[in-house]
């Protein structure tokens, strides 16, 4: 149940959003339906890594492949399994009525935080996006993080994001434009007004140089791809960095090598897919570490068998994730 009033949502978010936040994939069973037990297992697994929260039905959660009823079902499962663990629900859509329906469902289920991106397909002008987000935000009292990503067709710069965060219940921005200038400028220009979060750890070293500190990694898949319950070095690194302490030794010893493998495969998969998020890569990686996946839904293609084998060999060679060949 919402624990704040609308005009206090920004202050509430400063306490609610901190440290490492994860992104949930949506596992599917042999029939292609949502794998409820698999999803519940994945949530418990990520919680065991020490992550502070997670988002459901985001880009990595394949919201674009889910029906409205499936998205509602997903929300109900996630909030039930999460219990007191913070979670956020993604409600992006091209239909205003469906967004309002999803927001209402999220509030009834017990979510306190929503995520929304630009209304893809029908907009290409920042002014249209800003007007749309103003309208949608007026239809709910819940706090909202705006998702700035090329996957939605329109990227806002820091000046345009300033108009977004001036909206009463827009508490921040997941700044995933992959444009470092936009990320840095957003932190410098908007960080006192709202929470700005770039979902990659390079932002911590940049912040150290430029005098800002990112309080939350909102959100990525690196915790469950890089960590195990016995060695959660990535999550520890982000938790400390989010409080202003960057442990360079921990990063060099425990994270650097697996991050390099991740960057290589991420770039390869995105490039081969023409810029689409590497859902297939992350879902297969999850299978390798014991999580549930079921592969991506069409139109996303699964990884080729050779790519799966090559990735498996590279990860097993690190002897960090205990992957058996």
Describe the structure.
The chain starts with 8 loop residues before the first helix and ends in a 7-residue tail after the last helix. The chain contains 13 helices and 8 strands. An 8-stranded parallel sheet has the order 7-6-5-4-3-2-1-8. Helix 6 packs across helix 7. The protein is α/β, with parallel strands linked by helices. Strand 1, helix 2 and strand 2 form a beta-alpha-beta unit. The longest helix is centred in the last third of the chain and has 25 residues.
Structure in a nutshell:
The protein is α/β, with parallel strands linked by helices.
* Total beta-strand segments: 8
Helix % is 40-55%
User: Biggest β-sheet: count, sense, barrel?
Assistant: 8 strands, parallel
Question: How many structural domains are formed by the residues?
Answer: 1
* CATH architecture assignment: Alpha-Beta Barrel
Total helical elements: 13
Task: Assign the CATH topology.
Answer: TIM Barrel
How are helices and strands ordered from N to C? Answer: HEHEHEHEHEHEHEHEHHHHH
Shape: globular
Taking pLDDT < 50 over at least 5 consecutive residues as the criterion, the unreliable ranges are none
Strand content bin: 5-15%
Radius of gyration, in Å, reads 19 Å
Write out the CATH superfamily name.
Aldolase class I
**Cα distance, first to last residue?**
46 Å
Average pLDDT, to the nearest integer? 97
CATH class: Alpha Beta
């Amino acid at each position: 149940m919402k624990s704040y009033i609308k005009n206090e949502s920004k202050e509430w978010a400063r306490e609610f959003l901190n440290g490492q936040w994860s992104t949930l994939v949506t596992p599917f069973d042999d029939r292609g339906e949502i794998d409820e037990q698999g999803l519940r297992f994945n949530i418990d697994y990520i919680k065991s890594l020490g992550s502070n929260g997670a988002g459901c039905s985001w880009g990595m959660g394949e919201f674009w492949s889910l029906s409205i009823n499936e998205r509602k079902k997903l929300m109900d499962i996630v909030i039930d399994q999460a219990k007191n663990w913070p979670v956020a629900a993604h409600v992006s859509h091209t239909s205003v009525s469906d967004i309002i329906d999803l927001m209402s469902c999220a509030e009834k289920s017990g979510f306190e935080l929503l995520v929304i991106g630009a209304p893809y397909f029908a907009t290409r002008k920042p002014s249209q996006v800003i007007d749309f987000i103003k309208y949608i935000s007026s239809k709910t009292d819940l706090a909202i993080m705006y998702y700035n990503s090329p996957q939605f067709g329109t990227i806002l710069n820091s000046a345009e994001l300033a108009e977004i965060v001036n909206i009463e219940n827009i508490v921040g921005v997941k700044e995933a434009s992959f444009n470092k200038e936009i990320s840095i400028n957003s932190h410098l220009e908007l960080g006192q007004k709202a929470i700005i979060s770039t979902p990659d750890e390079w932002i911590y070293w940049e912040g150290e140089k430029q005098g800002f500190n990112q309080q939350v990694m909102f959100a990525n898949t690196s915790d469950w791809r890089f960590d195990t319950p016995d060695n959660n070095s990535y999550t520890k690194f982000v938790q400390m960095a989010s409080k202003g302490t960057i442990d360079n030794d921990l990063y060099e010893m425990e994270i650097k090598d697996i991050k390099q493998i991740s960057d290589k495969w991420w770039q390869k998969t995105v490039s081969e897919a023409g810029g689409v998020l590497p859902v297939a890569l992350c879902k297969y990686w999850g299978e390798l570490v014991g999580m549930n996946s079921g592969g991506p839904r069409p139109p996303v293609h699964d990884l080729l068998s050779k790519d799966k084998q090559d990735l498996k060999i590279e990860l097993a060679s690190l002897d960090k994730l205990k992957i058996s060949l």
